[in-house]
Request: fold
Amino acid sequence: MLTQRANLDSELAEQILEFGKHIAGSGPITAAFIFGDFILAANTKRTPAEAIFVIRGFRPKLMSYVKAFGDRTAVMVACDEWVFERDVDRGFLGEALAWGLIFPYIPLIHAEYLHAQEIRLKRRLILELLENLILEYPELSHELQIEPEYFMYEAMLSRVRLFPPMIDSLLNFMQEKNRNQNSELVLQGYREALEKLKGEKLVSLSGSCVRISEDLIKSAQNPAVRLLNISKTVPRRLFTSLLHTLPRFLGILSENSEIMSRLQRFGRANVKAVTEVEVPENYVYVPTSSGLVTLADRTDIAGFVRKSLSAGKEADVTVQPLGGMLNDVYLVKISVGGDEKKIVVKQFKDWSGFKWFPLSLWSIGTKSFAVLGRARLERECSISQLLSSRGFAVPKLLHVSPEERLVFMEYVEGENVTQVIKRLARSKTWAGKQRELKVIGRIGRKFAKVHALSIGLGDAKPENIMIGEHSEIYFMDFEQASRNGDRVWDVAEFLYYAGHDLPPVAEAKTAEIIADAFIVGYLAAGGKAEVVKKAGTPKYTKVFSIFTAPHVVLAISNVCRRADEMKE
Reply:
């Protein structure tokens, strides 16, 4: 990264380079560069010049020097080429040396070598940050779209969080006067690194945004990756502190009292940083039907109604609770001039103990549930977008506010399948029953097509499936859904809950014909017979026997076990 600074003192640069040659002695200097506040936005006589010399075969491997050149102090680090390159490639010293390549820098010698090291460093940083996103958003990572600015700001801020005194460098980087130039210099390296990752098929590029490849998501979900990334924070904190603070402190203190004022300003600077520094999540987007929304979005219900639905003060807005004990779901009605719009808003709170404990007891040994609000929110968004992209009828995702843990969705007109089952049970004629059984068969086919994508719906009760105004089959509620989810659970939950929805005095025969219609449809569309057969085993029947009549559970279980014999 070659940056031109009108205020760079060429005489000082020459003096620093000559001193480096003296340090190197007979060892060849591989590269040298100046970095830090000196070339950002704080070039005063009290700002020390910081330089790194990369020397082949340097002994000792690493040394720090402080020297005054006239009225300017310089803090210089000499390191062996092997040490520098390992810090770039692996964070050998917690990037205490490679740190200088994250910000703008001025090459003093061998700019091509430094540029190559910068791209190698930024390639690694991008991969680490993508792995962290995958571990933090295991489902949503499949859908995220990321601008390069995210990697730039997150790489800087993550190191500032480990060693807060570095906040001054970040604030100088962000000063309005040189912010655009600074950002463009740094971003160019990230763009080149992303092109390399694209060639390795680890990411894809769509316009200005980055998408994470399925192969990278799969490899990053290994627990060892999280352990490795966490382990890197210790050397980063230790070596960054030693190499950047101690020599600076000694050198500056010997020349002036600036260090004292910087320490006094640190508390104020930290507060200032919160409001002035970019939030990296502003550059990570979740797709919705109305466009991209950032992970940092904080829109609440009132804000969404006002901005997205153009509802002014004259609008009549009502919020009506929906859902059961475990869900905070609201129907929002907006009436303007006689016209009414409806949206559904889900709020994803962490399930507290008294809510979660009965559910965990109920399903122990068979099914585990996502409990944290953010985890359930990302599943809702990710699976909804995936199914929509594959042509399934799902409520449109209108907006998402991750910070508020809110999801805004289209309101679907129609009836849920619970009503279909109850109507079937009440029907006195076979023709009436057949009409509803055809719907059940169509639902079975839809389940098979979802399962063909290796998706488990997670909460596949009949009440979470809607028949739309034009007979479309809508899947709803994806907060427990997941890629590679439990397909047996989906089949079992739908069938045994269907049995639960029957009248208490219903005959087992009614449950049998419902199960038969669903399974025939499921198998006809490519569903696996072994999935259905497992739904009839005690592992699943024991869970649902708590609230479904025993004779109904037995009847459904027997039908499931005969799946090999069933065909359309």
Remarks:
- The CA atoms of residues 149 and 242 lie 29 Å apart.
- Residues 2-6, 245-269 have pLDDT under 50 and may be disordered.
